[in-house]
Amino acid sequence: DTIVLDSFLLRPEENTRRRFVLAHELSHKIINSADPTRSAACFDRIYDSERNYSFDELHEWLIFEEAQANAMAAALLMPRFMMAAALKKYNRGKRICVYGDSVFLPQTKTILQKISDMLGVSHTALLIQLRKYDLFEVRDITEYIEKNLMVGGKSWNRISRPSFKKNRCQRKRKNDGARNQLSLLWTRTRWCLFRY
Q1: What are residue 22's phi and psi, to 5 degrees?
Q2: Pairing of strands 150-151, 96-99
Q3: What is the CA radius of gyration of the chain?
């Protein structure tokens, strides 16, 4: 009935991680008390010598138990009604706008930080729960690039719309340069977004 924490989790800057670890371990306790045939936490697990476990069976079982405990911990720390209240307070009740899988506008990042601070959870845990509750408004990444990224000191929209006062050759050269810059920017963006 005791939860043992690593000493680094006691540091003040680890508050959100400590809360999640405690909720995770509490979830194991709740799940195990609801189903007494289940075993205790991994380090307390008693090996049943009368049963033959296959490696795949044990591996799958352990992964399922950990995922179940993580889901319950997230539900304890970030129930739907608290998420709705946080969105109402910080985002006028609207869903969070995300470009691609995980690109946010700077003002959206600020909103996410306020919500995670309010709930006392990490940014990552918050994003997982927002996705689980379908609280993201997913937009195409190209929309973000076209509207928000700067290419050569000018917005892409300004570069891609040449002035009709220039002759046709000047417009074509400028557009080719802008396209090359956007291509390079998109390659760098993809590398930054997908390297993790």
Answers
A1: -60, -45
A2: unpaired
A3: 24
Residues 6+ apart with CB under 8 A from 86: 115, 118, 119
How many whole angstroms separate alpha carbon 195 and alpha carbon 183?
Answer: 18
Task: Answer yes or no: are the C-beta atoms of 178 and 156 closer than 8 Å.
Answer: yes
- How would you write the pLDDT of the chain (196 residues) with one tens digit per residue? 778 778 888 888 888 888 998 999 899 888 888 876 665 544 434 445 566 777 776 776 667 788 888 899 999 999 999 999 999 999 999 999 999 988 999 999 999 999 999 999 999 999 999 999 999 999 999 888 888 876 555 554 544 444 444 455 454 454 455 556 556 555 555 444 444 3
